[in-house]
Specification:
The protein is mainly α and 225 residues long. It is 48% helix and 7% strand. The chain has helices at residues 15-18, 22-34, 45-52, 61-73, 111-114, 119-126, 155-164, 170-184, 191-224, and strands at residues 40-42, 77-82, 85-90. The protein is elongated.
Length: 225
């Protein structure tokens, strides 16, 4: 079922969008209306050609497949398989603002396919696909993305840590965080939020370690004060 989607004006000035042919750009906008609320759809050039270009006899499955290859080449979409079925994930789907998004019935990108993608694509996928108005914080699906290969501290993260987890060696803990989750290979909807949760837990551990020393000092004050 086709859906109403938003086209931002800056799309037309985007250099990467300009690197694919005009028909492919139009087709790319078209597949937004075919994608579900998490930016996924069935990879069928024949069905997409018939749905998006019903009056154009020259738009065959082969032609539409070429357009999809152009989109994939510029990292606008990821084409992937689950068992014998083929699907498409729109990469930067969080530009859409969706009221009350529905959970996708299409499986997410398999881990072995994710590992082959560029860091840029993985970073965009890790940003999440449920950023629309009214998106649910829980129960919106168990999928996500693995920790980006280039995940690291930013100035904003350091500033946040200084305020909320001052007892934590943020550089060391971030390295531990990355090493742990890289080894786990689990998917998360928001890696920055997972990082903040990790730092808050470490802050709690630091506060617990300080309590015995504080009690001892208080006892000495009462005894010899």
């Amino acid at each position: 079922m086709a859906r109403i989607r938003t086209v931002k004006p800056e799309f037309y000035a985007d250099q990467k969008a300009g690197s694919i042919c005009r028909d492919a750009r139009l087709a790319f906008i078209g597949i937004w209306t075919e994608a579900d609320d998490e930016g996924r759809l069935v990879d069928s050039p024949k069905l997409l050609a018939g749905s998006l270009f019903p009056w154009d006899e020259d738009v065959t499955a082969e032609v539409f497949d070429c357009w999809l290859k152009e989109m994939e080449g510029q990292e606008f979409i990821v084409r992937y398989s689950v068992e014998t079925l083929r699907f498409i994930q729109v990469v930067a789907w969080n530009h859409q603002r969706i009221d009350r998004p529905s959970v996708s019935r299409i499986p997410c990108i398999p881990r072995d396919t994710l590992d082959k993608l560029s860091p840029n694509v993985r970073r965009k996928l890790a940003a999440g696909t449920r950023k629309g108005k009214g998106a649910r914080s829980k129960g919106a699906g168990s999928d996500g993305a693995p920790i980006p290969a280039d995940f690291g501290l930013t100035d904003d993260m350091r500033k946040w840590a200084t305020e909320h987890s001052p007892l934590v060696n943020v550089t060391t803990e971030t390295k531990r965080f990355v090493a742990y989750w890289t080894g786990e290979g689990k998917l998360k909807r928001s890696w920055p939020q997972t990082w903040r949760t990790w730092m808050l837990k470490e802050q709690g551990y630091g506060e617990q370690r300080q309590k015995p020393a504080n009690r001892s000092a208080a006892t000495l004050d009462r005894t010899f004060g």
